[in-house]
Amino acid sequence: MTNEKNILEITNLKKHFGEKKVLQGVDLKIPEKKVFGFVGKNGAGKTTTMKCILGLLEADEGEILVNGEKVTYGDTKTNRFIGYLPDVPEYYSYMNPKEYLSFCGEITGMEKKTIKSRSEELLELVGLGSEKHRIKGFSRGMKQRLGIAQALLNSPRLLICDEPTSALDPVGRKEILDILVAAKNETTILFSTHILSDVEHICDDMALLHAGKIIMQGSITEVKEKRRGNTLELQLENPEENAMLLNRFTKVTDMSGSAIESTGSNTLLIKDELMVPDILRFLADHNIRFIKMEKQEATLEDIFIEAIQN
Ligand SMILES: Nc1ncnc2c1ncn2[C@@H]1O[C@H](COP(=O)(O)OP(=O)(O)OP(=O)(O)O)[C@@H](O)[C@H]1O
Ligand SMILES: [Mg+2]
């Protein structure tokens, strides 16, 4: 084992389909007991990477270690450490949640007693504890929650969820995110998504897959810190005085045309922090009062867009 703290280590993973080189040397290390966001746009190769980790797809090159053991294509031995929620899970819709988990436990050779206690615990965790109805009538959110319970059944060291929130409304998404955070006590979670705000809310670490490689990786704070921009936001007490600054400084703009939505329309942007002393002097000389002047925090969304455009 190269590093005891990493539940997953991927080195130089390559995979192509025909002419298409999907993975071109992916390196990824995931420490234990983290929620890890695996980000990339549609077709980036997230599902492909996950299927390689599960030994369901044969890699062209590279090495994958799960809990220190090498993954071999077609041999599912390392999958005893893994729970998997596929992007489009299939269910036996005539079963109710408890029957479904029993069935899953039985086919993986779990003991009846363990299945029973573990099912009860997990159905409680995913909010389906008292659900007696058949899966047939379940909403998408309910199905995803059941899918997480199923993936956690054998107490995996690594839980892999492929876009668990993508098809859900905000309420359903929040339910899933809360469950993932709760599951962090017992496992490491690797989940793929293109919803950056989900990553921002619940992940400790993230990696961005683009053009076949991981082009950004680290804790959310590290990633944001690295991209901290040169722009400040300035809000005047009296917005009618905005024009004075706009006329005087070319590096001051208003929010129109900006992609940032979170700030109010009265906020000005200072595009170059070196201008701050001059601007402060101007404000003092003209007796203009301001409510706030602060460094603009880039959202993951901004960082993501910027990174994949380079
Ligand atoms: N079995 C396959 N045969 C041929 N091409 C494939 C196969 N599986 C995936 N691909 C191609 O590989 C690329 C990566 O697909 P993949 O499903 O891994 O992307 P993804 O990041 O999971 O995307 P999404 O966000 O849409 O789920 C895509 O261009 C896809 O068309
Ligand atoms: Mg996918």
Distance between the termini: 36 Å
Spatial ordering of strands, largest sheet: 6-7-8-3-9-10
The helix-strand sequence is EEEHEEEHHHEHEHEEHEHEEHEH
Strand-pairing-aware structural class: alpha/beta
Bin the helical content: 25-40%
Number of strands: 14
Number of helices: 10
CATH hierarchy: architecture of the largest domain: 3-Layer(aba) Sandwich
Under CATH at level 1, the class of the largest domain stands as Alpha Beta
Query: Largest sheet, if any?
Result: 6 strands, mixed
Beta-strand residue fraction: 25-35%
Query: Into how many domains do the coordinates divide?
Result: 2
The overall pLDDT average reads 89
How would you describe this protein?
By secondary structure, this protein is α/β, with parallel strands linked by helices. The protein folds into two domains: 6-225, 3-Layer(aba) Sandwich (Rossmann fold), CATH 3.40.50.300; 232-309. Helices cover 33% and strands 27% of the residues. The chain is built from ten helices and 14 strands. Strands 6-7-8-3-9-10 form a six-stranded mixed β-sheet, sandwiched between helices. α3 packs across α4 (140-152) and α4 (140-152) runs parallel beside α5. The two termini are 36 Å apart. Bound molecules: adenosine-5'-triphosphate and magnesium ion. Magnesium ion (MG) is lined by residues 46-47, 87, 162-163.
